[in-house]
Amino acid sequence: MVTAVTSFGRSGLSDWLVQRVSGVILLAYFIFIACNVINGVDYVSWKALYAQTWVKVFSLMAILSLAAHAWIGMWAVFTDYLTERLMGSTGNFLRVTLQLLVLVTIFIYVVWGVQILWGY
């Protein structure tokens, strides 16, 4: 039996919903960035754009969405493909090690992103 580690006691439906909402936020952010790049952006206008609070909040939402999306997605991949049946006795150890590595990487990404955006 597989337990829902990502949901912290919630159902798989909430994980599915977080995955979809985070995907929509990431798509909107990608379109926003692509439109700015296509319209031609120089350093001064880019800096002025990111000086606005709403852009910082939108970027923070994208960072947190990417973190949630990646965590749920990687958890699903690891639990589906790194099983004891497939990997033998080292399957659980490898899966837990990779999950911890992904979790630490995501944490560093979020902290770094917040520091860059908000200057902390």
From TrEMBL:
Specify one Pfam family. Answer: Sdh_cyt
The protein depicted here goes by the name Succinate dehydrogenase hydrophobic membrane anchor subunit
Pathway-wise, it operates in: Carbohydrate metabolism; tricarboxylic acid cycle
Membrane topology according to the record? Multi-pass membrane protein
Identify the domain of life.
Bacteria
Q: Name one GO biological process term.
A: cytochrome complex assembly
One Gene Ontology molecular-function label: heme binding
Name any cofactors this protein relies on. heme
List GO terms (cellular component aspect).
plasma membrane
The note on cofactor binding and number reads: The heme is bound between the two transmembrane subunits.
Which species does this protein come from?
Answer: Parahaliea maris
Chain segments annotated as transmembrane: 20-41, 53-78, 98-118
**Which CDD domains does the UniProt entry name for this protein?**
SQR_TypeC_SdhD
* Binding annotation for heme: H69
Q: Which gene encodes it?
A: sdhD
Compartments it resides in: Cell inner membrane
Task: Tell me the SUPFAM superfamilies matching this sequence.
Answer: Fumarate reductase respiratory complex transmembrane subunits
Tell me, in a sentence or two, what this protein's role is.
Membrane-anchoring subunit of succinate dehydrogenase (SDH).
Q: Does the keyword Glycosyltransferase apply?
A: no
